[in-house]
Amino acid sequence: MEFRRTTRADFPLLARWLGSPHVARFWNHETTPEAIERDFGGSIDGTEPSFDFIVEDAGVPVGFIQRSAIWDYADEQQELITLSDAPRDALTIDYFIGEVATTGKGIGTRMIQEFTEHCFAVCPSASAIIVPVIAGNPASWRALEAAGYERIAESHIPPDNPIDDGWHVVYRRDRH
């Protein structure tokens, strides 16, 4: 798999993916050009402390993945920080498979495994990656488990999608 930094040329693809039912169910994201620019432009410009990537499999875009340091978003991540006892150097990732035809084929697990190694390689001071997942998304948390993450907690965290009750499972993978 290849992880290439997102560019503005990817915005129509991101909007299409975010609008597809299997992604929209859990990302609950606006897909207008203004919303895509607002939420992904800062990573491109370096004005946000997150790093966004298009995931390609054999040169074909199949998904999206991002990383950030949890403490860079301490206000938004306070529940996660407290619940997981997140160290100051911890990262978090978020991701989705954009093409529905590629779901259920192990791509998510491979994407998480390879991106985890990428994160530890480019962030040598990071001791752990901590990932909250809405409990109602078993495909996501099973992919984390298959990628070597360990479930460390279950608790309420404000959900991204208001139709969810906020019950999350939290996974962690420490640097080996």
UniProtKB/TrEMBL annotation:
<dbReference type="GO" id="GO:0047663">
    <property type="term" value="F:aminoglycoside 6'-N-acetyltransferase activity"/>
</dbReference>
<dbReference type="InterPro" id="IPR016181">
    <property type="entry name" value="Acyl_CoA_acyltransferase"/>
</dbReference>
<comment type="pathway">
    <text>Siderophore biosynthesis; mycobactin biosynthesis.</text>
</comment>
<keyword id="KW-0046">Antibiotic resistance</keyword>
<protein>
    <recommendedName>
        <fullName>Lysine N-acyltransferase MbtK</fullName>
    </recommendedName>
</protein>
<comment type="function">
    <text>Acyltransferase required for the direct transfer of medium- to long-chain fatty acyl moieties from a carrier protein (MbtL) on to the epsilon-amino group of lysine residue in the mycobactin core.</text>
</comment>
<feature type="domain" description="N-acetyltransferase">
    <location>
        <begin position="1"/>
        <end position="176"/>
    </location>
</feature>
<keyword id="KW-0012">Acyltransferase</keyword>
<keyword id="KW-0808">Transferase</keyword>
<dbReference type="InterPro" id="IPR000182">
    <property type="entry name" value="GNAT_dom"/>
</dbReference>
<dbReference type="InterPro" id="IPR019432">
    <property type="entry name" value="Acyltransferase_MbtK/IucB-like"/>
</dbReference>
<dbReference type="Pfam" id="PF13523">
    <property type="entry name" value="Acetyltransf_8"/>
</dbReference>
